[in-house]
Design brief:
Elements: E1 2-3, E2 13-15, E3 23-24, E4 27-28, E5 40-42, E6 51-61, H1 76-85, E7 94-98, H2 106-114, E8 119-123, H3 129-146, E9 151-155, E10 163-164, E11 171-173, E12 178-182, E13 193-196, E14 210-213, E15 218-226, E16 229-236, E17 238-240, E18 246-250, E19 253-254, H4 266-277, E20 282-285, H5 291-304, E21 310-315, H6 318-322, H7 324-330, E22 333-337, H8 338-344, H9 350-363, E23 368-371, H10 386-397, E24 402-405, H11 407-410, H12 415-436, H13 451-470, E25 474-478, H14 483-490, E26 497-501, H15 504-509, E27 516-520, H16 527-540, E28 549-554, E29 564-574
Parallel strand pairs: 6-29, 7-8, 7-24, 8-9, 9-20, 12-13, 20-21, 21-22, 22-23, 23-24, 25-26, 25-28, 26-27
Antiparallel strand pairs: 1-6, 2-5, 3-4, 10-13, 11-17, 12-16, 14-15, 14-18, 15-16, 18-19, 28-29
Helix pairs in contact: 5-7, 10-12
Length: 575
């Protein structure tokens, strides 16, 4: 083993110099131009006892032939894919499936898990508390008894203006038919009458304004106000669905309305308490207006939940777009809810807005899910349109962390086929992106505030650049809280990232990170021991072979020396 770099806060300067003179992957580096990097900066550390050490190592790992007792938390799907396709054949884009009546049995859930579902989403707008509890426990049973690794997300209903048709079925609005929108409460349904769920919904609305249902499913022109209600004529016929959303437009522009509704309703808080009791992994917050609601929820979870539940903000309104960066910074991740967003902004802006949101999330190191209508036609048909496949490919090309199925899996007849389309399309586009080597075109924003955080960030940036340039087969990261795994993912490396952690919450959270396969295993303060044990276990499973090259990164903080942070980069070949 050759130690070729050293960084220490022992005086007033930091200096990091590296030189590779060993053979790496059978190539003698001594005949190549010298590899080095250097950084020098003045620091006042007279009051600091913190030591930071970074080591760059190149070595060969030789199997001892003796596998000690231990376990490695490979989920059965990743293990199968790795054996069949090799390291570079692993899919990096994560897949989220909305669970509904069409896929809530344990057999259907297992089929989705086998087909590549990483996260199961439960929409709290629908179904009963008992139904959700049953689904969550089925997923956890599959994880525990069958060896899957599927995280659970609940998606809050949120405060929004919705309409009630008085029945559970849809109603067709014909052209020129006259309808009455009212806040009056009554049982059952009335002909040509629609209930709105907010008393002040008609305030500021004038004759001639338009009411657009669900982003264009149907359109009405306001004829006159009648008390707190509106008498309207249908100008664009279409289906009115139960719990449909409405928006108001004037002269072709969205009529801005501030209903002063809190982001989280009483029902949302009740659902959150339920989610905590069921040990869910993610909470997606609907109709986020600013960072305040996200910060409040995260503070609440810190004091009430025994596990680290991640909070995702859904971007689906003009208000959230105006405060995008502060919302991204406050949250643990973002969901681009294109369906509701398309109600509030012109449809032609959706592609560029999606690209911008994805870019901001990459810069701020937050996972981003592209959701809504990815394969909408597959709710009814067994094959997608070519335009839908192109839409999925573009989201992958933008390096979104995850893609989400909604009605396609929840109520559609071809949920498994839809998931297969996402899996095969994303795998093919990832291969195309590797061939283009597009990673070098991305510029990363500096995130770290403290010096240790800055060093961790730079180590991950350099590690990915090294991994891509040297052509290693995989990156191994040893992490307790997932920070360095996410920083590696942010750089979108060519080789897959295997994140070894002893924290189950970290394992489930990393399920949403691009290119990261989280593995639950025992970790100690002895980094050499951790690496040797995990390599031996993977080798015993037949998933790593002679001459494979791996790059190793760690952010494990030895418990025995809490004031010392040890971070390292190692490049290894298996013999």
């Amino acid at each position: 083993m050759a130690v070729v770099g050293d960084l220490a806060l022992m005086g007033t300067k930091i200096k990091l110099i590296g030189k590779l003179e060993k053979r790496v992957f059978g190539v003698p580096l001594s005949t190549s131009p010298r590899f080095s990097f250097s950084q020098t900066r003045n620091l006042d550390v007279s009051k600091s006892r913190t030591a930071v050490r970074a080591v760059l190592q190149v070595e060969k790992i030789q199997s001892s032939g003796e596998l000690k007792e231990g376990s490695l938390g490979f989920d059965v799907v990743s293990e199968r894919e790795l054996k069949e396709n090799g390291f570079l054949g692993l899919r990096k884009t994560k897949l989220v499936c909305t669970i509904g009546p069409a896929c809530s049995s344990i057999d259907e859930l297992e089929k989705l898990a086998i087909a590549g579902m990483n996260v199961a989403r439960l929409n709290m707008c629908h179904n009963s508390r008992e139904w959700h509890q049953d689904v969550i426990r089925k997923i956890k049973k599959l994880n525990q008894e069958k060896g899957y690794c599927v995280s659970v997300m609940i998606d809050t209903e949120g405060n929004q203006i919705q309409v009630d048709l008085g029945s559970s079925s849809s109603v067709k609005a014909e052209e020129d038919s006259i309808w009455y929108f009212t806040t009056e409460k009554f049982e059952g349904s009335r002909p040509f009458t629609i209930q709105a769920n907010y008393e002040g919904f008609s305030e500021g609305v004038n004759s001639g304004d338009e009411i657009v249902i669900d982003g264009g499913m149907a359109t009405f022109e306001v004829i006159e106000k009648v008390g707190n209600g509106l008498r309207c004529k249908c100008t664009d016929p279409g289906l009115l669905l139960p719990r449909a959303k409405l928006s108001f437009w004037r002269d072709g522009k969205l009529l801005g309305r501030d209903y002063d509704l809190p982001t989280l309703s009483t029902k949302d808080w009740s659902d959150i308490v339920f989610g905590i009791s069921e040990n869910i992994d993610f909470i997606a917050v609907s109709f986020v207006k600013d960072a305040g609601a996200i910060t409040h929820l995260r503070d609440y979870l810190t004091t009430t939940s025994s596990k680290a539940i991640k909070v995702l903000a859904k971007i689906e309104s003009l208000e959230s777009l105006r405060r995008l960066e502060e919302i991204v910074e406050a949250s643990d991740g973002i969901m681009i809810a294109r369906g509701d967003l398309g109600v509030e902004i012109p449809l032609e802006q959706i592609p560029s807005v999606q690209k911008d949101i994805t870019y901001v999330c990459r810069q701020l190191n937050k996972p981003v899910i592209v959701a809504s209508q990815l394969l909408e036609s597959m709710v009814e048909y067994p094959t997608p349109t070519r335009a839908e496949v192109a839409d999925v490919s573009e989201a992958v090309r933008q390096y979104a962390d995850a893609l989400m199925l909604s009605g396609e899996s929840a109520i559609g007849s071809y949920g498994m086929k839809a998931l297969s389309v996402l899996r095969t399309t994303s795998t093919r586009m990832e291969q195309s992106c590797r061939e283009e080597n597009r990673q070098t075109l991305l510029h990363q924003r500096k995130l770290g505030a403290s010096l240790p955080d800055q060093i961790a960030e730079q180590i991950c940036n350099c590690a990915v650049e090294m991994a891509d340039n040297l052509g290693v087969d995989a990156i191994f990261v040893y992490t307790r809280h997932g920070k360095m795994a996410s920083l590696l993912s942010r750089n979108r490396p060519n080789p897959p990232v295997f994140a070894f952690t002893n924290n189950s919450s970290t394992q489930m959270a990393l399920n949403l990170q691009w290119g990261v396969t989280p593995l639950l295993t025992d970790l100690s303060d002895d980094m050499e021991g951790n690496v040797k044990k995990t390599v031996e276990l993977i080798k015993a499973k037949g998933m790593i072979k002679k001459d494979d090259a791996i790059l190793v990164v760690s952010d494990i903080i030895p418990i025995s020396t809490a004031q010392t942070i040890f971070q390292s980069i190692q490049v290894m070949t298996i013999t």
